[in-house]
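Before we proceed, please read the two lines closing this message. Report back on whether the structure tokens fit the sequence:
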Amino acid sequence: MDIEVPCVGKKFDSEESAYTFYKSYAHKLGFSVRKQYLKRVDGQIKRRTFCCSKQGQKGVDKRCEQVKFEHQSSRVNCLAQMTCQLKSDGMFEVVSFKADHSHELTPTPMKHMLRSQRQITPAHKAVADDAAKAGLSVRSTINLLTTQSGGREFNGFLDSDFRNYISAKRRIEMIKEDGHAIMEYFHKMQLQDPSYFYLVQLDDDDNSILNVFWADGRSIIDYQHFGDVVCFDTTYRTNEYARPFAPFVGVNQHKKSIIFGAALLYDETISSFKWLFETFLSAMSGKQPVTIFTDQCAAMAKAIEEVFFQTHHRLCV
């Protein structure tokens, strides 16, 4: 593989072009990069340094006495860098370049995991929007993109990157006006039905709505009589925000489907499912189902194991 090495005197037509070149060079060698030093004059970039992501050292954590677990720092004071300066001809010229690294480089099979090489492109976002409208789960959308690209190493992002993008998008779309409307609706329903149960989980940072659960008095009574077997499904995404809609469904003595409760989830993670299952038990006076049927979701299975520890978990086919 031919690798074009940066050299002093090489010119670029913009600061972004220089960054793109250095990222490409870094990917071929096996290291991640970040933008470091920046000098502006009258709002115009005059000098920019791009460095290895392992440059520098982690500062002392002032919370060290309260921190129970501290992640190992990835910075090892690596000095590899490329500095460009704006010249009179409007071109950015490389004025400094250091190639040596103080750490091992990432081998080829792992290069796609380098942070600076990962991004959710406009094409990925378009597919995500179409998939959400079609009712596909995040997991199914990732599998679709993986099939199109030919493998996860060709996606250009990690599964966690994509999930974070979807979560951030949903957070933005759940605007405050809708949150107020939800709370007003629940308050109205509780006035009409004193047994109406609802609980809303809010984000600690901005008080935006994360997860919502509700069950009316009729559903709670039905669960006490027919709640031995529950079917839990999160495949419904017909709501405006493409959030997972998760009903708890059972069957009555007339072999008719009945709903014990429902939720609108922020995402399909272990923490969201644990919150939901614990809330469901609270609404149902702690009664656990004898058997619960779900799809093949690892996060859901883990939450069921931790919360519904007396329940037999079976998979829908």
About this structure: The radius of gyration is 26 Å. The chain is about 35% helix and 25% strand. The helical segments are 15-29, 122-134, 138-149, 159-173, 176-192, 217-226, 270-283, 298-307.
